[in-house]
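We close this part of the discussion by returning to an individual protein. The sequence in question and its structure tokens are set out directly beneath this paragraph:
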Amino acid sequence: MAPNIGVNLRVTGHCNQGDRRYMEDVFSVAYQQTEDEKDLEYAFFGIFDGHGGREAAQFAKDNLMDFVVSQKNFWSDDDELVLKAIREGFIATHQAMWKELEHWPKTSAGLPSTSGSTASIAFIRRGKIYTGHVGDSAIVLGYQKPGDDPRHWHARPLTRDHKPESVDECERIQQCGGKVINKSGVPRVVWNRPRIGHQGPIRRSTEIDEIPFLAVARSLGDLWSFNSSNNEYVVSPEPDLDVLTVDVTQHRCLVLGTDGFWNMVSPQQSVSNVAHAELFNEECLINHTNTGEERQWINPSKRLVDLALSKWKMKCLRADNTSVVTVMLDPPGPPKVQVVKKRLRQSSESEQSSAAKRPADEAATTAVQLAERAKAAARFRPAFFRSGGAEPRVPGASPLRDYKVFNPVGALKPALVGRRSCPQPMTAPPPPPPPPRVPPPAATAPLPLLAAMSASLPAPPPERRDVQINEVTSSSCARRAPPPAGEDSDTENRAAPGRPVRRRSAPPAGAASVPARAPAPLAAVRRSPSAELLQKVRRKTDELSQHVRQLRSSFSTPPRTRRSALRSHNGDAPPPPPTAVSRKRRSSETARPERPAKKPVTRSRIRLGK
């Protein structure tokens, strides 16, 4: 962009309260323009995680940058002096909180406020990143290695957490006269709190309670940790300082987050999500430029906060305050939007120019290919056609027609056949003639042998169509005498119940009379096993149906009549019909004798004496 800042910046931020009762996270983004307002002198990014109240975090957000910029060394070209100015700004902010302590709300026990805050800040100036950090917030740099996939970014932490479990921090706390006690699995700095009910100044004789209080070793605020005996703070405001030169060819982003974010998301995961969001936003810009399609761009900071909250929920934990600030580092020059649009314009122009040159290139390529094909065909052309026109061509004859490869079975014209230089044509032998069709033999009279064999065969058995099926299956046919000769037989017109009657139609007038075969004797039919089986089945069916009717009639009668009907039934004769007995009569007949009336019980009153 300009020599003062040396990089283009795109910044987003997002915060969420989570499941906590109060929101104590804040972040700050600021910059200072040059006098001509065409450039930036510096850009400031800070994130603060408060505890014990929001007051210390809000105070650091409003005053820390001003305390740093007001230092004379901050405007120096020497990096060490700039880092010294940042340190002095941290100490000045911490000391200024003593004046604000009386305005901050007191604790429930009436003691002064215990508010404090972490602070992770970054100044970008003259193409360099200056960082200052206290607490457990963090700053991570996303960079890309040369030759790697542009979608794959790497993470590099620029800060380290100040925790009481750290060996260096634990030793420093003990040297300052403090203690670290483990409470619920978390090491905490001890607060030497006066006994509840104490009033007045704190003296050596004041009773003190040791309270495991803070899980951070350094912060701004936490004035309760001041040790007056050695004039030091157990929870120190001394920041970690560092400087980094920006490489626009590799460095891609900065991610600033509070512990509510870094406890759930690793640095590599955060940088990978920012890279994915950046590629998606570029695609949205390209689609909007080409097709005019409107798509919702992704806020990388909000994407990271949502990712952390989803992980808090997956682990069934109460989500902490979560805040993220994302700074995209672009090469100096025009903004990223203009760069992408210019790239699209150049690609479209190159495509149009290539499309315009394509027909000429195709024509030249086609001409070269045709020439190569002509040369290849000339090599295989016979000597007669490669003689340079020594002998005249036959009109209408193809140059390659006399070549056996191209005309293996075709016959040449007579003018070409008689020449010596022309090879003899190869003709295929004529196909063999088809075999003659033999007409089918005419129908002839049967041979004498077949006639003799057919005469020697026995005659087929007579058909039994005169005997109806109802004569076999009916049980009454056995006791009924056959009809006398000369009368119309009733068996042809009689059929079983529910079955159609089979009648024999009389022969038409003038037709030759065919003698009817005599019916088989009925006794022979009855003696067949199938007839006897059918009779048994019919008999059993009748008995079962009769028994079912008896059961139905018995169940339709009253209970007492039903029992008598079932007892009187002997199996051969049907049971007597049920008698209708009214409910009133039956109840009167079967009424029980009335019981004698009970004597009324008289209760005597008993008077009690006073």
Q: What stands out?
A: The CA atoms of residues 103 and 113 lie 9 Å apart. Residues 8-161+239-333 form a domain with the Phosphatase 2c; domain 1 fold (CATH 3.60.40.10).
